[in-house]
Design goal:
Could methylate the ribose at the nucleotide 34 wobble position in tRNA. The protein is an alpha/beta fold and about 170 residues long. The protein is about 30% helix and about 20% strand.
């Protein structure tokens, strides 16, 4: 079972860097759909990811159609949008034969509306009070969703990784 965080045309290097750090800590693949609003060599991007970049599998895709065409047959796609009917805790993320892809939109505009209309059954949302904010921060949203998927997957091998090999906490 493999999890992917997919960013559609991300604009802010700090968000992408923070998401890369989450990916490093959760063994999650990071997929980036171009065009990017920054260079992957950007100093702000590197600072946000600190020294974790070499620990993250990063795939880049030239556009959304190319990404969709490269989804494997066992890929299960979820579109993260505040306009979805189901919440991020509703789907089952436990099929061990599947790869899970959580697609997040651009910070300023989200996912393209025509694309969202094609796949309404794949859309999930994080509940929020829209009268107080327009949207949650992208890196926070990615962390919320990936940790729910991992919780359902019993955290794979991560649950015990914080314990010292010879000095387990009791």
């Amino acid at each position: 079972m493999t999890n992917h965080i997919v960013l559609f045309e991300p604009l802010m290097p700090a968000n992408t860097g923070n998401i890369a750090r989450t990916c490093a800590g959760t063994d999650t693949v990071l997929d980036l759909i171009k065009p990017l609003g920054f260079s992957l060599d950007d100093k702000h991007m590197k600072r946000a990811g600190l020294d974790y970049w070499e620990k993250v599998q990063i795939n880049t895709h030239k556009n959304l159609p190319e990404f969709m065409n490269q989804l494997p047959s066992n890929g299960k796609l979820f579109l993260v949008s505040k306009f979805a009917n189901q919440t991020y805790v509703d789907p089952d993320y436990t099929d061990s034969n599947s790869e899970y892809y959580f697609l997040f939109g651009k910070e300023t505009t989200g996912l393209p509306e025509p694309f969202m209309r094609q796949y309404p059954e794949k859309a999930i949302r994080i509940p929020q009070d829209d009268s107080n904010i327009r949207a949650l921060n992208l890196s926070n949203s990615a962390a919320i969703v990936i940790y729910e998927a991992m919780r359902q997957q019993n955290f794979n091998h991560l649950e015990q990784s914080h314990l010292y090999k010879n000095d387990k906490l009791k």
